[in-house]
Amino acid sequence: MSYRPLQLWLSKLGPKLHSKDIGYISDLCRHLRKSLQATVELVCGHELLNTLLQSSIEDCLLEIAKGIADSRPLFDVMSTALENLPPNSIGARATTGSMIILAHMIVVASVSTNAQQVFPEVLLLQLIKSMLHLDVEIRLSGHQIFSVLRSQILTT
Prior knowledge:
By secondary structure, this protein is mainly α. It is built from seven helices and no strands. The chain is globular. It starts with a helix and ends with a helix. The model is unreliable at 6-10 (pLDDT under 50).
């Protein structure tokens, strides 16, 4: 199973992306979260397909993130996702896992554009809340997201 057509479509978008593309990123993050959640809940047999799907979603996120000059809308997507963490631990872990992947994509895309960024307050607040979460893995994920984004801001 190949997700190449979506990647080709994304490459045709070019460097000028608009606010609707933030919706694409939000949808891709949602699909990535569901895929990460399915990885935990899978009995057997679909691991390879799920891994291929996750890899393709990550490639698409990277291509879209490269085309966005200002990372602030991406930070807004992250803060909204963290604000609406599901109550069950599997869903919350999958959400923070997808946000870690998005954070890495933002860093890679920002390195290619050398854009100066300021850490957004709203995202910082949501990260602090996740760092104080009852679930240890969610706390660690919050710290990891902060670390990835903070290192990017310090290097630019």
